[in-house]
Amino acid sequence: MAIDAGLGAIGFLIARILFGGLLAFQGLNHFQNADAMSGYAQSKGVPAARAGVLFSGGMLIFGGLGIVLGVFPAIAAGAIAVFLLVATPMMHDFWAVPEDQQQDEMTSFIKNVELLGASVVLLALSSQPWAYALGGLGL
């Protein structure tokens, strides 16, 4: 069933704007705070930490804007899912940090798993036409 008309389509558009817009904002944050984020990534053992921060920021911007605009929705949602599958256990390894850091890392881990679930839902819905999507213009 396509999400292409009525209140459901408007609700889906609002959800896309909220979800994708905040992901794109997080991606922009990767660029604006690249030094601090690179240091954190390096402390987690990420090789080429700065490049990883910038690449993942690009994935978040691309995926977030793709979801908002409905452009290449499978690729956009897939980019977000891949980012979260890789980054979540690597960056938020609550099981491997000192006890005083476990709660913060667990909270971030759980948040990312929730976002992963949402991105998988969007990936599943990407086979259907999205109302109010630029993808409907042949993109």
TrEMBL record:
It holds the Pfam family DoxX. Keywords: Membrane, Transmembrane, Transmembrane helix. It comes from the Archaea. The keyword Transmembrane helix applies. InterPro entries: DoxX. It is found in: Membrane. Its main location: membrane. The chain crosses the membrane at residues 6-28, 75-95. GO terms for cellular component: membrane. This is DoxX protein. It comes from Halococcus morrhuae DSM 1307.
